[in-house]
Write a structure and sequence with these properties.
Number of strands: 0
Largest sheet: none
Strand content: under 5%
Structural class: mainly alpha
Helix content: over 70%
Number of domains: 1
Shape: elongated
Number of helices: 4
Oligomer: single chain
């Protein structure tokens, strides 16, 4: 039977590994919170709008400020429907 002192390095290694897992889990939680945040959606929506305005303006299309609402609106609608689609996909189609 091994003594307590011979198991100490193993215990230390396990504690280090557990701390690493906890830190990784925190990073994953933060990443997930960002991916699902309204702030991110709003920033992407604004960027989509500005890029669409620039693109339509460079093509000399009429009313680029108004027409750019179409792709931006499509983006926002897609973000609203993705939650429903994701739940369906997980329930019906995802199999490990």
């Amino acid at each position: 039977m091994k003594s307590f002192y011979s198991l100490y390095p193993l215990k230390k290694e396990m504690e280090t590994e557990i701390e690493g897992i906890k830190e990784r889990n925190k990073r994953v939680e933060v990443d997930k919170a960002w991916e699902t945040s309204y702030t991110r959606r709003l920033i992407i929506g604004i960027m989509t709008y500005l890029i669409a305005v620039w693109f339509m303006y460079s093509l000399n299309l009429g009313h680029p400020w108004l027409q750019a609402l179409i792709p931006t609106g499509g983006y926002f609608l897609s973000t609203l429907s993705l939650g429903v689609i994701k739940k369906y996909w997980i329930k019906k189609l995802y199999k490990k």
